[in-house]
Each structure stands twice: as structure tokens, then as C-alpha cells.
Amino acid sequence: MPHDTQALDDTDDAILLGQVAEGAEQAFVAFYRRRSDDVFRFAYAMAKSSSVAHDVTQEVFLNVLENAGRFDARKGSARAWLFGCARHVVLDRLRLESRWTAELPEGAAESSTDCRNEEHVLTAQRIGRLHAAIAELPVEYREALVLCELQELSYAETAGVLDCPIGTVRSRLHRARALLTAALGATEPDPAAARMLETSEVCP
């Protein structure tokens, strides 16, 4: 996304959050429509469960509804603030449900069965391997990879979300890429592999 467009999006998000804080229902609906997919993809990449991702998304936006007034644009973008909220909810769910080990992505078998041609089947399998490999990463590496590669936050924004120095983000991301590449072998290039997660469905 071009820098100017991102800046405009950040401004629009901040305006919407300000209106949500004032009780504007339509602003909340608009913000939900703009950013709910981002939260869902983050939660799914972290927990690798559709049901958990749906629950996390709903909880995060309930938090937005109740705490929009706490957003401070001087401390970072609305997206970074939103991912900070999502991170806390996801980590709570991971601890609660002990989802620390990899398992096949939900619906993977159905997707493979429903796909109409070999290309779609191969895509489903690649995404399944990717999700499984990411789910096996230690959580501190997993969240750095998801925020930087999937959500395309800057190092500074990611550092704000994770409450750590930028150097720590860089080192965690470097380690995450190395572990992911090792897990996938030579089948996927590391940054491009992470961005495959942006594909929410593999069948038309």
C-alpha cells in the first residue's frame, strides 16, 4: 500500500474511533467493516482456529466500543492500537485453551474436496502447510511474523504492539523467518509465504 494511502487510512481510522468514543453507531459499523478482517486474519494466524478467530474478533470490537476513547493517535496508528487489543485477547485464549501445538487447519479437508481443479488443491495444501508451520513457532516469533509480514505493520508499530524495542522486533522476525523456512524446506520463500495468509479462501 502506498505511504500516502496508508496515511489517509490511518487518519480515517482515527476519525472513526473519535466518533465511536462519542457514541456514533454508524462510525462503529464503518470501523468494524474496515478492520474486522484484519483482526480475524491476525487471530487465525496466531491460533489457527476459525472459531477462536471469530470469538477474538467479536471480543476485540466490543472492547473498541467500550474503550475507543482511550485511543491516542500520538502514540501510534489505529491499526496498531487495534492489534494491541487483539494480541491480549489472543494470548488469553491461547493460554486458556492450550493451543500451542500445530494441528491441521479447520476445513482443510473440505476445501481440498470442494476445489475444482489441481491448482486449487495445491494452493489449499500449501496454505495448510504454512498455517501448520506458523502455529509451531514460539508465540513471540509467531506474533512478530504475523504483524510484520501479514499485517504489514512497520517495525516501530510492531514494537508498540508487542511493547518491546525495535531491535527485538527485528531479531524475532529474523528468527521467525529462519524457523519458518526450515519448517517449510525449500517449498516457500519466507516473506511471500507469510503473505499467502491473506488468502481467506482457496476455492471460488
Keyphrases for this structure?
204 residues; 74% helix; mainly alpha; single chain; 0% strand
Q: Concise description?
A:
The protein is mainly α.
Structural features, described:
This protein is mainly alpha-helical. 74% of the residues lie in helices and 0% in strands. It contains ten helices and no strands. Helix 2 crosses helix 7 and helix 5 runs antiparallel to helix 6. It is globular.
Q: Number of DSSP helices? A: 10
Radius of gyration, whole Å: 17 Å
| Fraction of residues in helix | over 70%
Q: Unreliable stretches, pLDDT < 50, 5 or more residues?
A: 99-116, 188-192, 196-204
Shape descriptor reads globular
Rounded to the nearest angstrom, the distance between the terminal CA atoms is 25 Å
Write the layout of secondary structure elements.
Blueprint: H1 3-21, H2 25-47, H3 50-67, H4 78-97, H5 108-114, H6 118-135, H7 139-150, H8 155-162, H9 166-184, H10 190-195
